[in-house]
Amino acid sequence: MLGACGAVRAEIVAARYLAPTERYDHGVLGDAVEWGGLELSLDDGRVLRAILPETLVFEDIAPRLADVDGDGAPEVLVVETSLTQGARLAVWGEQGRIAATPHIGQRNRWLAPLGAADLDGDGRIEIAYIDRPHLARTLRLWRLEQGALSPVAELGGLTNHRIGWDYILGGIRGCGGSAEIIAANADWTAVMAVRFSDGRLEARRLGPYRSRQSIDAALACR
Q: How many whole angstroms separate alpha carbon 209 and alpha carbon 10?
């Protein structure tokens, strides 16, 4: 169990998955092992752990710390997968799960996170991921508002993962003061930069995709 109600709130400084499990055999990340638990380390020295029910796993590389509610302290972004309904993105905090998107709706369907940032400069944080990077190849943005995740925008034709990779490409960069999402186009021929403005996502080609280093260079503003 994570923090008890009424406890003094502390800031999350680290997170990791634990309790490896083979109860879900999708293997999209290169092996049959997923994760059954989450551990949060707090700045007051506490270490909190949560174990998922047998119907869920964390199907992910690593938890991501990001301030998604704008209070100055990080929450934790994770990919939770139902054994029957596929993946969803969830936000966790000291007290447990705060909010989650709907599951994709089918077994062996996954999403690949990109990160979280104020993409349009309005002071609110957007959370970005690629929905089914091997199939739908759709960038989706969500916001945490009033304790729930609300959809904001979507754009097709983008991806950040190939089946069997034990890593996820892309992310969010800030070059010249502007936040941009970096990913590949759907057929892995180009590196794409995506901006969010006036409620719309717009993508532009940065250059050819040749390898993982193509995406890494774009993230580093090179």
A: 42
pTM recorded for the entire structure? 0.94
Angle, CA of 97, 143 and 91, to the nearest 5°:
15
3 pLDDT band, cuts 50/70/90, is low
Please name the helix (run of DSSP H) or strand (run of DSSP E) that holds residue 216, with its range, or none: helix 212-219
Angstrom CA distances, 88 to 65, 69, 71, stand at: 17, 19, 24
Q: Kindly tell me if the per-residue pLDDT of 49 is higher than 80.
A: yes
Tokens matching residue 94: 């000291």
CA-closest candidate to residue 63, choices 82, 41, 84: 41
Q: Which of 166, 184, 170 is nearest to 220 (CA)?
A: 170
CA distance 147 to 149: 7
CA separation for the pair 101, 176 (Å, rounded):
32
